[in-house]
Design goal:
single chain; mainly alpha; 16 helices; globular; disordered C terminus
């Protein structure tokens, strides 16, 4: 049962990421370094926007939906999430344009802006709701398949026209179409009743806790490309981006495995302690494997896929691999241990400390060491996050009462 669950919820997003992986070598060779860097910067800006747009729903929403016994209540939660996220999306579009305008080194603004919008639109996906309700097939139908069609369908156009902007444009349009298609099939007009503008604003304000945690964590995780862009040369940035692409593809596996275990870990009546230990072991194993693969095969793979001019070096891949391991660990300690135990403040503080420590480290080290320093700075921030969360979990285990076994959010 567990293998089937992981295969369903983890395999589908990985299938979509494989399609994107196939496209990367084409973009690198057709567009060259200018398009490669512009696309990467746009993706980084859009990733930050997607986290803002998400308003913490992937973190807090599954528990709300899972605890609701009525289907109408579940759909209402989704309706609230959709309208609040849509308002945030509309507000972030001009802000992304302004941010990219002020960003130096963007030689292809149209490519960067469309990529930012396509990435930001991921914040509107119904995937978190499908995870909460246990419908992996809906993730495939409304999220994975549209993105795969956009990715694979645009390949002939890239070869025939050489216009890189067609990829983010297709990704944006088909991604939004998939979300609207889901709304048509699985929501009713009554679900949105009473969601006026003042109500939407109040709902957004009520989401500030979960939103703050995800924004703090995600914004920091999405900034390395932007930080290194200002400190490294164009060639150094291109090599850093190549390693970062492999790192991001690996993180899709982390998110997929973490999501597949999220509901299972907290199921009512289960042995939560054993399931959380399994979560930590599984994600740590994934992280260690990813570190080894990135360090050993990363330079060769990036040269083969993106060309020698854009290839990543060993140490950049090594530090990204270590960061990948730490992110895997904190995916379990945060979402599967501390959040169910109502220790969201610890998760928030750890991510803030990670940003406060990591960002200056990335800025200083990328200035001194180039792309390698940027990757090392990311590791330093992740070490701080991991240390704080591990300390909190050890404290929880020491304080656990003997009769804390299966119910609620006990550890």
């Amino acid at each position: 049962m567990m293998i089937k669950r992981i295969a369903a919820f983890a395999g589908l997003p990985l299938l979509a990421s494989l399609a994107s992986f196939v496209l990367l070598p084409i973009i690198a060779r057709v567009g060259g370094t200018p398009a490669w860097n512009s696309l990467a910067v746009g993706q980084a800006v859009g990733a930050i926007a997607a986290i803002v747009i998400g308003l913490g729903w992937p973190l807090t929403g599954p528990a709300q939906v899972a605890s609701a016994s009525l289907e109408s209540v579940r759909r209402r939660h989704y309706a609230v999430s959709f309208v609040t996220r849509t308002l945030m999306f509309v507000c972030t579009v001009p802000l992304m344009a302004l941010a990219l305008t002020l960003t130096s080194g963007i030689s292809q603004f149209r490519v960067a802006f469309l990529m930012a919008c396509a990435q930001a639109a991921a914040g509107l996906t119904p995937a978190w709701y499908c995870i909460a309700t246990g419908h992996a097939g809906r993730i495939a139908k409304y999220d994975v398949v549209p993105r795969m069609l956009a990715t694979l369908g645009v390949i002939p156009l890239l070869f025939s026209t050489g216009e890189i902007y067609l990829y983010p444009l297709a990704l944006l349009l088909l991604g939004l179409a998939g979300t609207l298609w889901f709304n048509k099939d699985h929501t009713e007009r009554s679900d949105f009743k009473g969601l006026t503008f003042p109500v939407i604003l109040r709902e957004i304000w009520g989401l500030r806790a979960g939103s703050g945690i995800t924004m703090a964590a995600g914004a920091y995780a999405s900034t390395p490309v932007l930080v290194v862009q200002f400190a490294a040369s164009a060639a150094g940035l291109a090599a850093f981006v190549s390693a970062e692409k492999l790192y991001r593809i690996g993180q899709l596996a982390t998110a997929a495995l973490g999501n597949s275990l999220q509901g299972w870990v907290s199921e009512y009546g289960a042995d939560h302690s054993a399931r959380r230990r399994f979560s930590l072991l599984a994600l740590s194993g994934l992280g260690a494997s990813g570190w080894l693969i990135l360090a050993v095969l990363g330079p060769w793979a990036s040269s083969l896929l993106f060309g020698p001019a854009l290839a990543a070096d060993f140490w950049t891949c090594f530090w990204f691999g270590l960061s990948f391991l730490l992110v895997c660990v904190t995916t379990s300690t945060g979402a599967h241990w501390l959040v169910p135990a109502k220790r969201m403040r610890v998760v928030f503080v750890s991510t803030i400390v990670g940003a406060v420590v990591g960002l200056p480290a990335m800025i200083f080290l990328s200035t001194v060491m180039g792309g390698q320093g940027g990757a090392l700075g990311l590791v330093i921030g992740e070490v701080a996050v991991t240390a704080i969360q591990a300390r909190a979990i050890l404290q929880l285990l020491r304080d656990r009462k003997p009769d804390d076994k299966v119910e609620g959010a006990s550890l």
